[in-house]
Specification:
The protein is about 40% helix and about 15% strand. The chain has about 250 residues and is an alpha+beta fold. It has 3 domains: about 30 residues; about 90 residues, no CATH class; about 120 residues, no CATH class. The strands form 2 sheets. The protein has a 4-stranded antiparallel β-sheet with strand order 3-2-1-4. Strands 5-6 form a two-stranded antiparallel sheet. It starts with a helix and ends in a 14-residue tail after the last helix.
Length: about 250
């Protein structure tokens, strides 16, 4: 009788312990998303099934970078997009909303509500290099992958376009810059009225790229050291007129 009681007691104990461990393991799945607060690092405009989306990278109080995607309307409410007097987004030559110009000396801090974050439901496998570039520049890995796999651009060229976009504070998207590569010549008009005119890819690279702005810097993990110098050397003051200004 005592032996049976001992067995029952042990079985009950294991059952309780298993339930506790199971609950602890399942708890994170039951947690609801939380709001994200941080200083804005990058703002990237994209489209998903023809709908404009805005991908924002924030640095939180612990210095951790978090990248989320929100709607155009949410971006406007958070003052992340340039708007006109009617609070309508100002469009770039490619018909996409223009992000605000980020000032490193006056960081823009925002709080993005959990309910405003667009979940990533694509679950599409992408090239690891696409993921690395997206993480570094705060972009859309699937779009980067598309530019490589469907449009035929090499990752080195894509990295250059991403650097150019970053050096222009995101005012011209990297895919628009890649389109410029295809077109061969054209102009970009920035929010402050600066006009960048180019007749070939070499001119655009000379005007907007630093010699250390390349794929190797990103993949090796040393690119963060170049961020400030790239932005200071290639701000809106470069590229006026015919794009022959030295970087």
């Amino acid at each position: 009788m005592n032996k049976l009681k001992l067995i029952l007691t042990m079985a009950l104990t294991f059952a309780v312990l298993f339930a506790q461990v199971g609950s602890a393991a399942a708890a994170p799945l039951a947690q609801t998303p939380t709001d994200i607060t941080g200083t804005v690092q990058t703002i990237t405009i994209g489209t998903t099934n023809g709908v404009t989306t805005v991908t924002v990278t924030l640095k939180d109080a612990q210095g951790v970078l978090q990248t989320v995607t929100i709607s155009e309307a949410t971006a406007i409410s958070l003052k992340l997009l340039q708007v006109d007097g009617n609070n309508q987004p100002i469009l770039d030559p490619n018909g996409l909303p223009m992000p605000v110009v980020l000032d490193p000396n006056n960081p823009l801090s925002v709080t993005i509500a959990a309910g405003d974050i667009i979940p990533d439901t694509t679950n599409v496998a992408v090239n690891p290099i696409s993921s690395i570039l997206a993480a570094f520049f705060g972009g859309d890995a699937s779009l980067i992958d598309k530019m490589h796999s469907e449009e035929g651009f090499g990752f080195g060229l894509i990295a250059q376009a991403l650097w150019m976009s970053k050096n222009l504070n995101g005012e011209v998207s990297f895919d628009a810059i890649l389109q410029a590569k295809k077109d061969g010549s054209g102009t970009f008009t920035l929010g402050d009225g600066t006009v960048i005119t180019y007749t070939n890819w070499g001119q655009l690279r000379k005007a907007l790229l630093d010699k250390k702005n390349n794929l190797g810097v990103v993949v090796s993990g040393h690119g963060d050291n170049q961020d400030n110098s790239s932005q200071s050397e290639h701000g809106h003051g470069h590229g006026k007129g015919n794009g022959h200004n030295k970087p």
